[in-house]
Fold these 2 entries.
Entry 1:
Amino acid sequence: MRHPDAGQGRFRETLARVFGDADNPFNWALTLGTVAGIRVRIHVFFVLFIVARLAYSLLQDAWGFAYALVAMSALFVLVLLHEFGHCFACRAVKGEADDILMWPLGGLASCNPPENWRAHLVTTLGGPMVNVAILPITSVGLLLAGMREDIVFNPFRPGAVISGIDTYWLVALWLTHYLNIVLLGFNLLLPIFPLDGGRVLREVLWPRIGRIPSLEVAITIGLVGAIVLALVGLVGNHAMLIGIAAFGGLTCWFERRRLRAPDELGRVGEGGLWGAGADDWKHGASDDDEPDEPSPREIRRLEREAQEQAEVDRILAKIASEGIDALNRREHAVLKRATNRRRRG
């Protein structure tokens, strides 16, 4: 007789082969390639989003599909370049950056800059600076094409400009110009963590009030900003604004909870999730039961465990200050090994 969980097990195995992590929908992504040691992945939900948008535009008319194809392509390239800006800026300050995830609400670069506010600020500004560099290129192109008046526009009424353009390549140029400015504005002007504006706010406050307090302030302002943005989206019937507000609000909420992670999970030397402290052997299990003198082999083992425990503690502190998405692959692996050891007792 077939076990009822057999089908589910095979489905999970298939997901694991394709995405590597069947249990975490956030990692359901396909690898597009690697550039300069940076892996670029596209989330399966982003693929479905693109297909849905193109299919919907095809139902309108052929031109609608053509415009949608240009818009989606330009948006993808602009967001990808923006994320590469974050990665290369992070490396410029001697940090680590090895992964970019493209998904429906933008891109997520896995950056691990040094633990100081300047390095974090440079990493954050690296993305918008790419958009700033693109701006004069598209502006000059529109100027040469005789579209001086359309260089500045109403961001909420792009159709008013597109309807007056009868050349496909000019539509592509103006849409690239439009989307680049919108991306730049949204990322820097909205103080919603983890958008660049929220990160810049945190990094400017960091040297004044401290690393953790600055994150707390940025998260609180981000929650308020997300609520305001959601209301604007509802009033103006802008689904994308509502989606960004929901993403920002949830991220701020989870970051707020992670700030308390070290206290909830336990600290090194105090038991808790990660077990007893690495130096407990020096003090004994209890006042009445003194342990024997450890052998050299035992000392080496305990020293190795102490180093591993210190690394776990550093990673937990990083989660508390920046969120789990800031971890690189090596840190994820260290955390997973520590969790597995804890589960085995």
Note: The chain has twelve helices and four strands.
Entry 2:
Amino acid sequence: MKKFRADLHIHSVLSPCGSLEMSPANIVREAKNKKLDIIAITDHNSTKNSKALLDLLDNDITFFYGMELQTVSETHILALFDTYDYASEFNSYIYGKLPDIRNKPEYFGDQVVVDKDENILEMEKKLLAQSVNIDIEEAVKKIHRLKGLAIPSHINRDMYGIISQLGFLPENIDFDALEIDERSKFEEVKTQYKNKYPIIKNSDAHYLEDIGTYYTKFYIEAPTVSEIKKARKGIEGRKICYDA
């Protein structure tokens, strides 16, 4: 079994809250400096900077493509795919449910789509930092139909975490893991939820220096979504370990 260090929650310049230094090229460079093996760019409600990531394909690091979805209940869910095509299909589906509210860059921040060489391709006009007209159950089903991972973000956070928004963790929804943030105490979360779900930790980086400050170790045969799903079940020695 091989060990992979993964940071699966990183925002790029497409997120209005992301630093303008967070181009996909810079993110990949910093991730390699931090000796990460798997990364995901997960902008708010959009995967449009995934194309730049695809074009930066690098044998030393594996890319997952995804987004941090904000559901109608203002709950954040990581949607992660190991193929660009599935991520793009999910993006089209979500974009059609995103309310047509214009971004105000002077208030929310710029939403920049770039290529692998940091050329600006588009300034996203729809506000990405808002709730999509989709509930959690529907979102998770769609993610799974596209063979992706559905992971509630920073579940203990006072804003946009599933516990704070709903007051509970729905038992009828099959999440692939639960993410805790830097303010969460792992042992408390593990005691409450680990019997049902693996606990992971990511950086939720909005600045280059934050990439890899928190990560998860996956003991799997290959850096793929299907292998992570097997690790969730502990199949043949595969496992998921929170770290950092």
Note: Residues 2-243 form a domain with the TIM Barrel fold (CATH 3.20.20.140).
